[in-house]
Amino acid sequence: MAGATRHNQSSVELFAIYEVSKILSSSLDLQQTLREVLRLLSYHLQMQRGRICLLTDDSTLRLIAALGMSQEEMERGQYRAGEGIVGRIVKTGMPAVVPNLADEPLFLNRTGGRNDIAEVVISLVGVPIKAAGECIGVLTIDRISDEGYAGNFDSDVRLLTMVANLIGQTVRLHRTVAEERRFMMREKFRLQKEVSKVDYQVDNVVCSSKRMQEVLAQVHRVAPFRSTVLIRGESGTGKELIARAIHMLSSRKEQPFIRINCAALPESLLESELFGHERGAFTGANRDHKGRFELATGGTLFLDEIGDISPSFQAKLLRVLQEQEFERVGGTRTIKTDVRIITATNVNLEEAVAQGRFRADLYYRINVVTIFLPPLRERSDDIPLLANHFVQKFNRENQLNVALHDDALDVLKKCPWPGNVRELENCIERAATLCRDGVIWDLDLSCQMNLCYSSTLWHHRTVTPTAGASVPGIPGYAAPPGMPMPALPQAAPARAGCSTGGVPGCSAATGGSCAAAPAALPPNAVPAGNPVPPAQPMRPQHPQPPAGGAPAYSDATPSADALNEAAVGELLGMRIGNGGPDEPEFTTPRDRLLWAMERTGWVQAKAGRLLGLTTRQVSYALRKYNIEIKRF
Ligand SMILES: Nc1ncnc2c1ncn2[C@@H]1O[C@H](COP(=O)(O)OP(=O)(O)OP(=O)(O)O)[C@@H](O)[C@H]1O
């Protein structure tokens, strides 16, 4: 009978140990875990008032888990080594059994948690908690009875020692993890400080603003991984440049970087361009053709303007991105791909998803890491560096030594740059081409001659809302999240010499001083209040334009249309030479535009490239010259 009881007792103890080990490995909250252990001992083994004290860094024993104690009582549970029963256990590293606490001189009742000591017999069993051979705390339990505990203290000590060992291992593990975590946090903080000091450099990307430094830091972080990157930002902010930078900083840099503009091709062509086609797949497919996915094998595929692809093509693209395989058009063989995908768009994708124009599953697939490129107007600190970079580029390409005058730089810094860096580049190239004495003066800038085609485009947008416009106040512009468009300045009344009527490109660039446009200047004159600094070259005399030319120097204020006409003409006219050696002579800008459209199969993006214009500028010019777009 006694054997059976002992057997039962052993089974209960074994079960308790098993449960304790489970609890100890179940949570990261040490205090909570230890309280659970005490609850289990109390429930299964009638070991009441369990307490666990742990040694802290200042060698004090602190009560960190207890059953049936208020927070206040717990806070009183602090002992020095050697003090009281608990202090003695830590000091000696040996278990202690006190059959009746009322008779124990070492008993301090510091917590005040045993006020029933006069009414019942309280026995205490305490064992050291050890880890790696060191005593790091104490586990105690009370046995409460009316006439003294009749059970076996030895078996209590044995069981509690096992539990204390498990606790010791757990505490050690928690402390190691906490220490490592503290170390990692310190390291993270240190690295963050280092990173903020680092001047990130990426080849070809010119910038000094904090916003762009953050972008470059992101570029460095994402480059080594294969994750899909989505680059967002307005047109001309440098999305392709950043995509190339990511490729060049990755281990794929020796492999191809292949770009495709998804908006420039109709769906059938886009499909064959991306996936390739087999001979005979369609009329004119005379031989097998590798698509860009195949050409980019091992490298990076940059899908520009991804926000513009049709819903049916979105489904096809999704399949490749998910399964990393595809078939050529007209083919049956499944081809595996190994390409890193970088996408870019200036479309508000969230709005497109909400309106059902863009698939949510594709959105999530491409939106793994997103890099937002701020518009130039939000990082005007970059303008001086960029402007000088483009002047140097012009000089290298033309073996010239043109300089940029500070006055011109001042005007550039005030411009809102709706066309961003691309527009700045065009502006500099144009001024460098036109300037007469090897210096770009403020008056050489197109906005100062009422020939700023950006302001013309802005003007067009503000008077001719485009379908799908989604930015309040700026029809035709859709700003993605985090890419707020500038508030339109109040239209200033048209002034002599300024026909843009206060459109942003002009009024901001001139600081509202369009009245001082060149028309008011006599030959050799310098505008009032704008003396030439001695160190700077003498301001040149601007000749009058030929009769019937651009309205820049006309005394009369031309109508907005006349300005647009002139500006677009200027735009197209200025680019003569980009079309290559076989470009014929044109008598009107309209003819040149028609020639480019015909030559590129009426693909506006391609015509734009031929003419050195953006797709939007081509689209504007087509409307301007009433050219009906041919569709095939
Ligand atoms: N930080 C920069 N440093 C030097 N050049 C830049 C920078 N940002 C942009 N550019 C130049 O501006 C022009 C436009 O850049 P890019 O084509 O990368 O812009 P994008 O955002 O991809 O334009 P889009 O949306 O129209 O395709 C390019 O000639 C590019 O080299």
Automatic annotation (TrEMBL):
Organism for this UniProt entry: Skermanella cutis
Gene giving rise to this polypeptide: nifA
InterPro entries linked: AAA+_ATPase, AAA_lid_NorR, GAF, GAF-like_dom_sf, HTH_Fis, Nif-specific_regulatory_prot, P-loop_NTPase, Sigma_54_int
Gene3D superfamilies: 1.10.8.60, 3.30.450.40, Homeodomain-like, P-loop containing nucleotide triphosphate hydrolases
Region spans: Disordered: 525-557
Coiled-coil ranges (or none): none
Subunit composition and interactions: Interacts with sigma-54.
Keywords: Activator, ATP-binding, DNA-binding, Nitrogen fixation, Nucleotide-binding, Transcription, Transcription regulation, Two-component regulatory system
Name of the protein in its database record: Nif-specific regulatory protein
